[in-house]
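Chain A, query sequence.
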Amino acid sequence: MPVPSYDREQQLTLLKILSAGLTTVLEQNEVELNDQAHLAKMGARTLVRVASLASDDDASIKTVLAAMGWTENNLEGTEKIVMSMRIADLVATFREAKIVWQRGARTGRKQK
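Chain A, predicted structure.
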C-alpha cells in the first residue's frame, strides 16, 4: 500500500513525534513532509532507529520501497524520475543518520 496523503494537521501531529536530530537530517535531505510524517507513523522516529534500518544503500532502497509501499513498476518519464528522487532523499537520510549516530557514539554525545 503506497504512502497515504496526510492532511496538514495530520502531518504536523506526526512530525512532532520525530526526534530533533532526525528532523534535522530529514530536512537537510529535503524529504517531503508527507514522507516524513509517514516515517513517523511507521515508527521511524529517532536517528538510531533509522540508522539501524539497513546496512548499506542497496538494503536502504529495499527498506524504503517496502516501508513506503512504493514500486517503480509501470513508471515512466517524469513520474519515474520524481519517484527516484524521493527514494534518493530517503536513502541519503538513512546514510546520514548512520553517520550522525556513529559520530555521536564516538564523542559520547548520542543524538536521538
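The radius of gyration is 14 Å. DSSP finds six helices and no strands in the chain.
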